[in-house]
Amino acid sequence: MSGTDGFSPKIVAYVCNWCTYLGADLAGTARLEYPPNVRIIRLPCTGRIDTNLVVKAFEVGADAVLVSGCHPGDCHYTAGNYHARRRWMLFRDLLEVVGFDMRRIYFTWISAAEGRKFQQTIEEITEQTRALGPYRPYEVEPAATPCSGCAACSAGSDPSHDREGAVADSPAQAHLRETAARLLSGGAVKVVIGYGRRGPAFITRPEDAARLVWNQTCFANLTTYLKRQEVRALGKPAIVLKGCDERALVVLEKESQVERAEVHTIGMACPGMGQPKCESCDTRQPRFADEMIALDGRPAPTPTADRYAALDPLLEMPPEARLAFWTAEFDRCLKCYACRQVCPMCYCERCLADKNRPQAIDTSPHRKGNFAWHLSRAIHLAGRCVGCDECTRACPAAIDLRLLNLALARAAETQFSYRAGTDPAAEPLVGAYSLTDKEEFIR
Amino acid sequence: MTTLTPDGLRKLVGEWMAAGKICVGPVRVKPGTELFTRLASPEELLLDGWVRPANSIKEWLLPRHEVLYGYRVEKNRIELLDQPETVPEQIVICAHPCDAAALPVLDQVFNWDFRDEAYNRRREATTVITLACTAHDQECFCTSVGLGPDAERGSDAMLTPLGDGQFAVSSLTEKGRAALGKAEADGHAGRTNAPPVRFVPRQVARFAVDHFADPFWQAQSLACVGCGACAYTCPVCHCFDIVDEGNGREGVRARNWDACQFPLFTLHASGHNPRHGQGDRQRQRIYHKFHVYPEKFGETLCTGCGNCARNCPAGLGVLPLITEIPHAEPVQA
Question: Which of A257, A287, B86, B260 is surrounded by the most beta carbons within 10 Å?
Answer without folding.
Answer: B260
